[in-house]
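Note to self: user wants both folds in one dump. Writing first protein now.
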Amino acid sequence: MNGAKAKASLSLDLDNKWSYMKTHGDSGWESFPSYLDVLVPRALRFLEERNLRITFFIVGQDAALDKNRDALRAISSAGHEVGNHSFSHEPWLHLYSEPEIAGEIARAEEQIEQATGQRPRGFRGPGFSCSHATLRVLQQRGYLYDASTFPTFLGPLARAYYFMVSSLSQEELQRRKALFGAFRDGFRPVKPYFWRLESGRLLEIPVTTMPAFKLPIHASYILYASTFSRHLALAYWRATLGLCRLADVQPSLLLHPLDFLGSDDTADLSFFPAMGMPSGKKLELLSEILRLFQAHFDVVAMEEFAEGLWPLSDLPVVEPEFRVQAESNIHHHSEGAL
């Protein structure tokens, strides 16, 4: 290919302040406190300066609130793709019944399209929540891809840390028992594949983890590692990029809002790793992370990446297997949601 770079994808899960507070078990989330008015302009400037077009996975509840409409419209106006990140951002989405999942996805879809002018073609479950029912709903609604799988063995450790620093009740802990996935998720593929469904196929683009070792490589993890050693954090990232090229993995890199926000922006989210860093220091390191990413790969939004994968005939086809099934006796919908 004359030395052409392989494509890779970049996305940002637009989890808002209230959704972090809700998952953490903090009071006050019901009023839907937001940092989108600060985050979105900052992120859009940062991406424009680096000539990056990415995918923003938007929570439907945010799109339904008038106070967020200008910020969300600016994302699509800047030429970025918008994806569906559920309506209520409940990481126990896999416990919903199939009709409830269908309602959740459709409701978010409607509000996101009204707010941004774009109908989402991709979906990522909150907290990497995924189920056979979710995949069926996405395929029936004509989605181009799902991006909810997180192939790592460290999910239980991440969940244990999150629970340790939370103020959750036993009932709330039970709901979140599958947050960040199970150990067996580490055996899932790192490369894209198709799910085999009753009425067709659905493309899955996993959140990339380090090939062979299946260690997380979110920008958030690298930023956290930098609080101990910036040199080692970047060495870890360079090694990951090298392994991706050796293993012929086209990475799907995940960003989070708190990669752009620091201790000078909010003090309410100090439980999140690397939130002791000021925003300027974070942005400087994030700039280096993405510079290296672009040096190795042609970085595009997930929709463009997915469209290039659909015609391929050699992608594996995988049967959906999920141990945790819907539990109709769990009351998952939270009071205060629109």
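First done. Writing the second protein, which came from a different request thread.
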Amino acid sequence: MLRSGALADRVALQLVITALELTVRPGLTLIFCLCLALDPLSTVMAVLFHGAANGCQSYVTARVMGGDAPLMAAITSAQHFLAVLSLPVSLLLLKHVTGRG
């Protein structure tokens, strides 16, 4: 469960993980798609899929396995908030790279 103080806990760690999830992962996906010469639609779909926020199952897994569930809830929430900004940027980039978007 996300508590109000959880978003303020270990902000640097949350930002690093969120940046990796929302920029590096879709960027690497784009590079792989271009290297494999995938068609534009497949490339767009793969990059957008990998550019979305992580699933909530990570929170459940952290809770069940005794991990830091409050931190995972905060990371998941931050990723969902920031994905609202990063996905349109990804779509614009993909439109220029693939001609489709």
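Dump finished. Worth passing along: The chain has a mean pLDDT of 86.
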